[in-house]
Specification:
The protein has 13 helices and 9 strands. It is α+β, with helices and mostly antiparallel strands and about 575 residues long. The strands form 2 sheets. It has a 7-stranded mixed sheet. It has a two-stranded antiparallel sheet with strand order 1-3.
Length: about 575
């Protein structure tokens, strides 16, 4: 199919058609607006001018009749009260004339008729009404009635006739306005019909043009594209129609040629990808086998390796108890070294086993109340806190999704670490708090211990990394590595806050529950409740005192010291635990 290039573009044709239609519609709209304004003026004349004028003309006639009735009644009775309709009618006449004059700017003929009514009414009052009233006042009712004769009635009939002419003129003006309204309304209807015809004709022309210039070329192009899509990549693509479609067909054909030239490369790439996928599958299977081997090694480490260690430790302790003091000082030192090494090896194996099990042996996530967890931590660290005279406090902690044993291990490590790395002759103070940051809870364990230098802030979370010798601070150096793995397993992160004036603050985040976010936002608007003192289980009771703010917490976390260890065997200090 040979493409035909030339003629107006599709855009130019559509713009030309829309311009013509737009000009016609704008002209019709302007004419309709002018006719609508004229129609509104004519309707306003009917409703707000001629209509009120008709009512006021009738009221003017009634006012004149009231005057005539009042004069007749007074001439008959001589009672001044009978003149009240005359005076009221006169006042009403003046008001009506003044009101009607405000509506007569566009009706000079009606104004002329109104002046005629005024003149005749005034003439009747001077010729008939006032003489009758004066004569009745001076000479009595008989003389007054004598003046109410046929000539007086003819004089009043002239007033009535003038009012009738006024009403007829008003009615004529109203009928002319109504005819004008009907005429303008008909013109508006005609204009609307013409506008509708313009829209219909333009739509029909546009539809036929789109069918001929757009739909048919597109259908032909689509048929050719389907042939290529079915696999005939050598089929040339061409079409007819506006220049845009010609260029589109050329671009599609260029794309077809590019696809055909790249198809061989795609096939080769697919073969390479399949080979890579095969290799990845083999590596995944190898990794699975390696993980099984690691699990087997962990099992061996936790069972088979601990058995000879227990024997070594047990017999070394027997030697220490039986032959302590019977051998020389160097022999006692060697035996102590052996006992200490066996015990440290047992702790190291247990810590490695615990580290490897995090995230692998799981009981599933549940809602965990960290306040209850802190109560368990308080019980686990009671002996260490008594020995060091330590004070453990915490504010209200949230409920999060996680594994309660792991979270208990995490907080126990941090609290024990803070108690362990205390300053000499300064009672340790450990404070655990939480605050909502975005969609996460940021939990802080802060102490007043020896602190940590900023350059070592990241090193402490590496397994077996120690900043102090085992003689100064016992432990395996794996505690904070376990803490970091627990936090990351729960979808959070952990770090050391080095911007604290004293001690160390270890902060970690845990995802917050949606309902906890809403509750925390509501609670932020209410005053905070002061912390209250509680017992070692963490159950709180009202307290009048608020625990003092604690310095930031320490940096390195190891497993809690054993209650029977050398560091806890001296005395039992006072233990203060405050739950906020």
């Amino acid at each position: 199919m040979t493409p035909v290039v030339g003629g107006w573009s599709l855009r130019r044709r559509v713009i030309t058609l829309l311009t013509v239609v737009g000009v016609l519609l704008i002209g019709l709209a302007a004419a309709e607006a002018a006719m609508a304004a004229r129609n509104r003026t004519q309707i306003d004349a009917i409703l707000n001018k001629t209509g009120p004028l008709r009512v006021q003309a009738q009221e003017l006639l009634n006012a004149v009749l009231d005057q005539e009735t009042g004069v007749r009644g007074y001439a008959v009775s001589g009672d001044p009260a009978d003149l009240e309709p005359y005076r009221a009618g006169l006042d009403q006449e003046k008001d009506l004339v003044a009101s009607m004059r405000t509506l007569l700017d566009d009706y000079p003929q009606i104004g002329q008729e109104l002046r005629t009514v005024e003149e005749r009414a005034e003439q009747w009052r001077q010729v008939v009404a006032e003489p009758v009233i004066t004569t009745t006042d001076q000479r009595g009712t008989t003389a007054g009635q004598a003046l109410v004769n046929d000539q007086a009635r003819q004089q009043f009939d002239q007033v009535r006739s003038a009012v009738g002419d006024l009403q007829q003129e008003i009615l004529t003006a109203r009928e002319e306005a109504a005819a004008a309204v009907r005429s303008s309304s008909n013109v508006l209807v005609v204009l609307l019909i013409i506008a509708a015809l313009v829209v219909v004709v333009a739509g029909t022309v546009l539809l036929l043009s789109l069918d001929r210039m757009v739909i048919r070329p597109l259908v032909g192009l689509a048929d050719q594209v389907r042939e290529v899509a079915d696999g005939d990549y050598q089929h040339g693509i061409a079409t007819t129609g506006p220049p845009e479609f010609i260029r589109l067909a050329e671009d599609v054909d260029a794309m077809r040629q590019k696809i055909a030239s790249d198809l061989a490369e795609v096939r080769e790439a697919r073969e390479r990808i399949e080979w890579v996928n095969t290799q990845l599958q083999k590596q995944a299977e190898e990794l699975t086998r390696s993980n099984r081997d690691l699990e087997q090694f962990a099992y061996v480490a936790s069972h088979d390796l601990q058995e000879p260690l227990r024997k070594v430790a047990s017999f070394c302790q027997l030697l220490q108890r039986r032959y302590a003091g019977q051998l020389d000082e160097r022999a006692d030192q060697y035996i102590a070294f052996a006992v200490d090494g066996a015990q440290r090896m047992q702790r190291l194996i247990n810590d490695l086993l615990a580290f490897s099990r995090i995230g692998r042996l799981t009981a599933g996530f549940v809602d965990v109340d960290l306040n209850k967890v802190m109560g368990d931590v308080a019980g686990q660290t009671e002996a260490a806190r008594q020995y060091a005279d330590a004070e453990l406090t915490w504010t209200e902690l949230p409920v999060i999704r996680g594994e309660e044993p792991l979270l208990t291990n995490l907080l126990a490590n941090l609290v024990s670490n803070s108690i362990k790395f205390r300053r000499p002759d300064v009672p340790p103070k450990v404070h655990v708090s939480a605050r909502l940051v975005g969609t996460e809870w940021e939990i802080t364990c802060q102490d007043n211990g020896i602190g940590i230098e900023p350059e070592f802030a990241d090193k402490i979370f590496v397994i077996f990394q120690r900043l102090h010798s085992k003689d100064a601070y016992p432990g395996t150096g794996i505690g904070l590595a376990i803490a970091k793995k627990i936090v990351e397993y729960h979808g959070g992160r952990v770090w050391v806050d080095t911007d604290v004036p004293e001690g160390t603050a270890i902060r970690f985040t845990l995802p917050a529950l949606p309902e906890a976010i809403e509750a925390a936002a509501t609670a932020a608007e209410t005053p905070e409740q002061p912390p209250v003192e509680g017992d070692a289980t963490g159950e709180s009771e009202p307290s009048a005192e608020t625990p003092p703010a604690l310095p930031e917490q320490s940096a390195e976390a190891d497993r809690p010291d054993r209650a029977d260890g050398s560091r806890e065997s001296g005395r039992t200090g006072d233990m203060r635990e405050t739950v906020g």
